[in-house]
Amino acid sequence: MTAPRNYTISVIPGDGIGTEVMPEGIRVLEKAASLYGFTIEQQWHDFACCDYYAKHGQMMPDDWKARIGSPDAIFFGAVGWPDTVPDHISLWGSLLQFRREYDQYVNLRPARLMPGVPSPLAGRGPGSIDMWIVRENTEGEYSSVGGRMYPGTKREIVIQETVMSRHGVDRVLRYAFDLAQSRDARHLTSATKSNGIAITMPFWDERVEEMAKAYPEVRTDKYHIDILTAQFVMNPDRFDVVVASNLFGDILSDLGPACTGTIGVAPSGNINPDRTGPSLFEPVHGSAPDIAGKGIANPIGQIWSASMMLEHLGEVEAGKAIMRAIETVLADPKLRTADLKGEADTVTCGKAVADALS
Ligand code: GGG
């Protein structure tokens, strides 16, 4: 007898277009569950958003971990509403808490040229750009170590430290090398800025060199972040797995999908590879206040995140089926959204993906 496949997920829509694309991600998840014979129990939470902050003066309740419990995964929308809450408060009060508390030390983000997506690089053909960006997700430049002295005076001083531990760097590099090893290209690129940032970045380079010895089949190269961003724009098809620190990985993983047409389709997984806590899946895009409330946001980033989440949960066939449905919808201008020169609104696009699922 096979074990029942029942999963519990925390659903946190967040702010702005997060609340509009989340229902489409759920629609597709529910359809996939019914087609592929598993169940998804949803536990919705109204915190980790700026509305919650407006009512309670903090982004999450003090007992947020108890309220979340032990789900199999967290499905997240977007955070940020700068008119109400400064961005650094909303981010540190929500997403960064999850990443640290659940030790989601890998942020995995694909950049792939999809069929039909209008992109300056589309002439290269679908599949020609197909990379994974592996971003260190729990330390690095995103640290709260530092301080502010003499605020508001002419003597004002601000200091913020970058934190890199050997343990933290090695574990994300190991994940990236393993990923590179599993792929046909077996090519890993590491991004630093070791000439200018002369303590932490050379350390990262040293760890790459050390780790590479254990992966002789993986072609490894190192770039400075400035020339790498130029190469992403000019020759993105040269890259396969790209690994970088928290800040550089954040930048590259917006730039990569933008090179393939739009950041609106890009998903991400905040992954705890050791499975000592839940992983969190969310679109790369933020809450987009400029288009929030208009019903025109692209739901594909949220839906693709659902596909990544299902693969992480072991529902690989269902995850792949969602990807096929996404490709079908993106190829049709009537079904894709305006950021992709399409005609559909958020709901029409989401329903089309659910209908295309088989
Ligand atoms: N869904 C992604 C999101 O809401 N991002 C907001 C943001 O500012 N993220 C910064 C980060 O991912 O470190």
From TrEMBL:
InterPro entries: ICDH/IPMDH, IsoCit/isopropylmalate_DH_CS, IsoPropMal-DH-like_dom, TTC_DH. The keyword Transit peptide does not apply. SUPFAM superfamilies: Isocitrate/Isopropylmalate dehydrogenase-like. Its cofactor is K(+); Mg(2+); Mn(2+). Its EC number is 1.1.1.83, 1.1.1.93, 4.1.1.73. Residues 8-353 form the Isopropylmalate dehydrogenase-like domain. GO terms for molecular function: D-malate dehydrogenase (decarboxylating) (NAD+) activity; magnesium ion binding; NAD binding; tartrate decarboxylase activity; tartrate dehydrogenase activity. The keyword Disulfide bond does not apply. It catalyses: (2R,3R)-tartrate + NAD(+) = 2-hydroxy-3-oxosuccinate + NADH + H(+); (2R,3R)-tartrate + H(+) = (R)-glycerate + CO2; (R)-malate + NAD(+) = pyruvate + CO2 + NADH; (2R,3S)-tartrate + NAD(+) = 2-hydroxy-3-oxosuccinate + NADH + H(+). Pathway: Carbohydrate acid metabolism; tartrate degradation; 2-hydroxy-3-oxosuccinate from meso-tartrate: step 1/1; Carbohydrate acid metabolism; tartrate degradation; D-glycerate from L-tartrate: step 1/1; Carbohydrate acid metabolism; tartrate degradation; 2-hydroxy-3-oxosuccinate from L-tartrate: step 1/1. Keywords: Manganese, Metal-binding, NAD, Oxidoreductase. Belongs to the isocitrate and isopropylmalate dehydrogenases family. Has multiple catalytic activities. Apart from catalyzing the oxidation of (+)-tartrate to oxaloglycolate, also converts meso-tartrate to D-glycerate and catalyzes the oxidative decarboxylation of D-malate to pyruvate. PANTHER family: D-MALATE DEHYDROGENASE [DECARBOXYLATING]. This is D-malate dehydrogenase [decarboxylating]. It comes from Novosphingobium resinovorum.
